[in-house]
């Protein structure tokens, strides 16, 4: 094989490799191409996701508001419970005092 034949063989091999690469690229592009229907579906999915995120945000805001209301209600009920317990304790002390006074006066 002389120099000219070597250059021609190399050129043919390089051209064949180029053609094969171009064809492979075209096939990949052809099979991975996004159709209009798929784009429409992606748009619908994006809109549904956006709506779901808005709904989630509204639900989180509602939950935060409701949680604050319930915590306030719990604090009020705990304050009422403390006041009732203090009143009960005072009543018990008063009744004990009256019992002891009655027992002291009844014995005489």
Automatic annotation (TrEMBL):
<protein>
    <submittedName>
        <fullName>Uncharacterized protein</fullName>
    </submittedName>
</protein>
<keyword id="KW-0472">Membrane</keyword>
<feature type="transmembrane region" description="Helical">
    <location>
        <begin position="6"/>
        <end position="28"/>
    </location>
</feature>
<feature type="region of interest" description="Disordered">
    <location>
        <begin position="88"/>
        <end position="108"/>
    </location>
</feature>
<keyword id="KW-0812">Transmembrane</keyword>
<keyword id="KW-1133">Transmembrane helix</keyword>
């Amino acid at each position: 094989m002389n120099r000219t034949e070597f250059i021609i063989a190399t050129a043919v091999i390089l051209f064949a490799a180029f053609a094969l690469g171009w064809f492979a690229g075209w096939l990949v592009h052809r099979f991975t191409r996004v159709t209009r229907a798929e784009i429409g579906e992606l748009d619908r999915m994006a809109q549904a996701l956006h709506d779901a995120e808005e709904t989630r945000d509204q639900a989180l805001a509602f939950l935060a508001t409701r949680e604050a209301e319930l915590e306030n209600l719990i604090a009020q009920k705990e304050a009422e419970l403390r006041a009732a317990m203090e009143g009960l304790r005072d009543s018990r002390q008063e009744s004990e005092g009256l019992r002891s006074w009655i027992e002291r006066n009844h014995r005489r």
